[in-house]
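User:
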Amino acid sequence: MTDAARLFAAVDLPDAVRSDLAAWARAAIGHRDDLRRVPADALHLTLAFIGDRALEEAGEIGEAVTEAAEGEVPLRIGAPLWLSPRHPHVLTVAIEDPTGALTALHTRVEAALAARCGLVPERRTFRPHVTVARVRRGARIRPVPLEAPPPSRFNAVAVTLYRSRLSPGGSQYEALARAPLARPG
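Assistant: Predicted structure:
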């Protein structure tokens, strides 16, 4: 039997931004039992969920993802978002794409995955966000208004193919392929 890997492509954020978002989440949700905060080192912006694939496909998928990485991707921290709004399962922070570079990167990654790996792109509109907390299994919460995180402008660090491993304490991510994005000179 072939080993399967749960894969996704993501944009990596600068360490300072991940720390700031984790600190904001701690302050915003406190010690609620119905939410589980995502650790700072696991915060990322998903570009494409690939799903369960044979582990031997990871090399080809990683090449498709990393070949799409090019240029500078300036971003801004946006407002908090509960997804889905009526029955939330995650608390996220919107990521704003002032130049359209993130949307272009998303389009390139999905096109590369479709061409090289047969991935069918999602039909729903790309909504860039970082998940900062997950609703615990069995919990039902009402979304409450939250103060926005501190404003921040930054450049995305890299595009990475991750393997996700589910565990009782939350998902663990292993980087399988990574390509840096251009930084300002």
